[in-house]
Design goal:
about 25% strand, 12 helices, six-stranded mixed beta sheet, Rossmann fold, four-stranded antiparallel beta sheet, Alpha-Beta Plaits, single chain, binds adenosine-5'-triphosphate, alpha/beta, globular
Length: about 300
Amino acid sequence: MEYVLEVKNLNKTYGKNRVLNNVSLNVKHNEIVGFIGPNGAGKSTTMKCICNLIYPDSGEIIINGYDLFKDREKALENQAALIESPGLYQDMTGKENIDLIARLRNVSKERVKEIYEFTEIGKALERKVSGYSMGMKQRLALGIAILTKPRFLILDEPTNGLDPTGVIKLRSTLQKLVKEEDISILFSSHQLGEVEKLADRIVCINKGEIIEVPNIMSSIQNYIIQISDLDTTLQIITNIIGEDAVEAITLDSIKFEIQNQDILSEILFQLLSRKIKIYDIYKDNVDIETIYEEIYIDNQILRG
Ligand SMILES: Nc1ncnc2c1ncn2[C@@H]1O[C@H](COP(=O)(O)OP(=O)(O)OP(=O)(O)O)[C@@H](O)[C@H]1O
């Protein structure tokens, strides 16, 4: 099955306020999708609909092939969610929290052991949750969420409240989930750097509508090249791609933007044939903040 989540034409109004307008998005098998958008854009509302916590006015949600509104139990069986702060029993130990849910859901002893390991909480699993750091609580909650081996995980702002170490650890935990547990993930976040590092793909929402992410992430490639002769190199690259796409950034390095690999080959060929030494060349990725600015700040239509 290609998709673990298909959301089609979701609409939701609160009174006269239309908060979701024909929202459609999907998550493919083994994919991590980042869901971004400004405050009040509709991220949580979309996620709550997917988790069946609220009903949309219209639209379709299919989880692992099961229609959420026609085959609710089967659809939800394949899904786990952390929507608000982890709902853990603070007066119980980490282990007791896991064991309790495992008993309620008939989870095997073997799986429970796997989850102890997964949390990477170690001996502290014997301590009360009230003394845990935010990161430990989150890993525990994630472990509990995946006890029943769901296919799809939905996380609303999972990096909220985590310190930098917690954020780095969460990233590796989620990547491990995709690899080892065969899980696909949809997560929302305001921390653009995190989205960029974690997501395979980004879905943007603004004022209740999904916006196409400009394809600049894949089509534009920025390179930085360090060379022996700045002036001649500038001239060669400018002749090939025009002066707007080239910029000297230090006394011996140049940044340039190309649309396809053939142009890069042409540039390198010409530099080498003019006996210019290339000390270093590397790709400078278009960062997500540039994309965010382009979508939400520079775009007049969206601003209005
Ligand atoms: N229960 C509710 N009753 C009325 N309006 C609501 C309700 N829940 C959300 N809204 C409105 O729906 C819109 C979308 O809110 P939502 O929480 O989905 O945004 P969000 O993208 O998750 O924002 P944030 O990044 O701030 O969490 C907002 O205008 C919000 O005020």
